[in-house]
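Proteins fold reproducibly. Next comes an illustrative record:
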Amino acid sequence: MNKDLTEGKPERVLWRFCLPLFGSVIFQQLYNIADSLVAGKFIGENALAAVGNSYEITLIFIAFAFGCNMGCSVIVSQLFGAKKYAELKTAVTTTCIFSAVLCGILMITGIVGCDPLLYFIKTPEEVFSDSRLYLDIYVWGLPFVFFYNIATGIFSAMGDSGTPFYFLAASSLANIAVDILFVKSFHMGVAGVAWATFLCQGVSCVLAVAVVWKRLGKIEISGKAALFDRALLKKILAVAVPSILQQSFVSVGNIMIQSVINGFGASVMAGYSAAVKLNTMVITSFTTIGNGISNFSAQNLGARKYERIGQGFRAGLKMVWCLCVPFCLLYVVCGRYFLLLFMEKSSGDALMTGMEFLWILSPFYFVVSAKLAADGILRGVSAMGKFMAATFTDLILRVVLAFVFSGWTGSAMGIWCAWPVGWTVAMVLSVCFYRKEYEEIRKYGSGAAG
């Protein structure tokens, strides 16, 4: 159901809108967690390492899908808030056409380029073939990844966070069942993990796109909306390209960090693979709430209700900090037990690696969540230059310091210590940028954003 985010008490509106988004991201992460859990439990430590190793490369493809999601979502939010429904429909079809072309290019690139990427990150020989197999299957499912992301972006832009939640809940639970069926009953190994994800994402994508199309058809306009518009594409790309670059560079940075981790052997790779899935679930939860803040900000920017943007940031900050407390406590106190979910007869080195990672990073969730809340405002008002500056600062610091600290300490612990430094510096930048942008919007209106 479409919902106007420009009416009602901002804190209550944002909570009601973001809670289903948070539920959705939990189920979204079940895809990746299920893959690693089944691989580690039913195949072995090398399979767990292979899935985790491949995951860093899949994030590059997801970065492009996420960029299309954000470009469409922000512009559609602004048009929905301004009640420009004909342009809204054109923005959707324009995004779909552009995304189809981009997806085709990425599929060709993935088919040709996965092996060189695996060699680049120094993938050990014992996990190379499984990593390549997982990626080969994943690449063929890219259209599902792209169009599902676009569909969820449109739902969110029109204030509906509930429908994506239902799709994800069903498909994620199905993915776990199919993972186990293919691996344990059919003995398909890592290929079974990949095919399970492919099939479940495909069904979810088809259903989500069908519902979006039906929902858009019910919005009445005078005349017929154009199928493609270059001016709207430029606006979409103004948000999408920085988002793609940001996510892509983060993924490239993670791949570079993965290459350092791979130098410490398969046990450390397996421990990191398990721990980073738990960490990613938390960071993605914060990012998704940040996306909700973006939709809230964009709708209110389109409706010229500027005071509500600042109120939305304060409400969003309370929300992410409420999530930080249980996540931090669970990972610090019970991290060992969560990691053991992924490991069957795993070495002590793998378990200790995962525990060190969670102990070092989880207390700083309060820092990175504040950054992602501020980033949500910056994206929503299309201040993408400031958004990229803060994000690249975080990335560069984490990559450089991962090499430096691991060299100093001679252990993987040095890599984990780079995360809090990057998060802290980037948080200060993002919050400062948000405050400056918000003051300019209050003084000069929506023309200040950019």
The chain has a mean pLDDT of 86. The longest helix spans residues 45-81.
